[in-house]
Amino acid sequence: MASHPTGSLESLRARNSRLVVDVLRTQGAISRAEIARQTGLSRSTVSSLVTDLQETGLVLEREPDSSPRGPEGGRPGVLVALDRSAGAIVGIDFGHDHVRVAIADLSYEILAEGSIDREVDDAAGESLDAAAALVQDELMGAGVDLSRVLGAGMGLPGPVDRSTGLVRSQPILPSWIGLDPVAEMQERLGVIVHLDNDANVGALGECTFGAGQGSRVVAYVRLSAGIGLGLVFDGVPFRGAHGIAGEIGHVLVDPNGPICRCGNRGCLETLVAGPALCELLRRSHGELTVPQLMQRARDNDPGCRRVVQDAGRVIGRALADLCNYLNPDAIVIGGELATAGDLLMEPLTAAIEQFALPAAAEGVSILPGVLHERAEVLGALALAGTNSAEALTAQVHTMSQTRRSS
Predict the structure, then answer these.
(1) What is the tens place of the pLDDT at every residue in 350-387?
(2) Per residue in 53-90, is it b (16+ CB within 10 Å) or e — as a string?
(3) What is the CATH number of domain 87-202+380-390?
(4) What is the 3-state secondary structure (H, E, C) of 317-381?
(5) Alpha helices (runs of H) in 259-332, residue ranges in sequence order
(6) What number does CATH give the domain 6-85?
(7) What topology is assigned to 212-370 in CATH?
(8) Which sequence spans correspond to the domains of the chain?
(9) pTM score, whole prediction
């Protein structure tokens, strides 16, 4: 019989520990038997791994509620859960005009949340300072000491180069060029920070907590001041070779159209982003904000309804191409324009059905986002939670190895 090298067995145990921690993070208090069912591990393996996690203080036992019954009529077994005192995580969402922060425990129970209005694009240093101060305030309000924070996730409204961690687009975030956002925030907070663009963290948010749960290939479309796209394949964001994947806002729609901030003409964003729609109505309606436009559309203003419906058709045409070359099983629509509801979703869906290959159109669910303005900050929490879980399980594995060898 072939023997497995010790290193292979240890790697397998570390991977299995991560599976158990992931279930506990997403499911909360749960029985050992249910952990075994969800992970596919044997009950004896789960029991051994839970014991390791208990001995390191990461997991504790909870008595089940007296009312629920097990599958055979008896009381369910003792439940296990991540210990809230084991640590906390932070989510930070930089929008173009706001900073939003959330604090959670390792099971994603929200402990505190807050936001401020702020111009982010042209004031990088001040925005980083404001975000750090907001994190400190929310931690204090939640009664969480900074020393308990295991990591922070952060989303920025622009492309991030995965190899350098730097913002790649001066027209989008001019004051952030040359800054290392991770290093800057780590210096301010003193905790490990994980960075992604806002569309990717929004996609993570909807896949982890919202409309995209249970789907394998998800495209999250953020329709606001800009047009962003986040892609999640089997729970993992797809960022491309250099972090630029998903820039659907700069797909060419009209070669003779308006000049885009990227320097090209007729990008999708120049035609259907919130400010572009408001500009279409300026002569007839005066100065409008995007929320005002959405409210008037919902109130049956004919001009506002028309620009929203037209925008839905243009966006749907671009998403039809996405369906043809990526074949997602879910497209989640979020951002300010999504508040128009069916007025946007119906022409958008009709355009996908018309222009995508029938098999691709039939296989995709077009879903409104359910997290709304919280999608990005909750996705930033998921980013922090996933990376913190990796660090925790590595720590647990090392401690377990030490005990077994002593």
Answers:
(1) 999 999 999 999 999 999 999 999 999 999 999 998 88
(2) beebebbbeeeeeeeeeeeeeeeeeebbbbbeebbbbb
(3) 3.30.420.40
(4) HHHHHHHHHHCCCEEEEECHHHHHCHHHHHHHHHHHHHHCCHHHHHCCEEEECCCHHHHHHHHHH
(5) 268-272, 274-280, 282-285, 290-298, 302-326
(6) 1.10.10.10
(7) Nucleotidyltransferase; domain 5 (3.30.420)
(8) 6-85, 87-202+380-390, 212-370
(9) 0.83
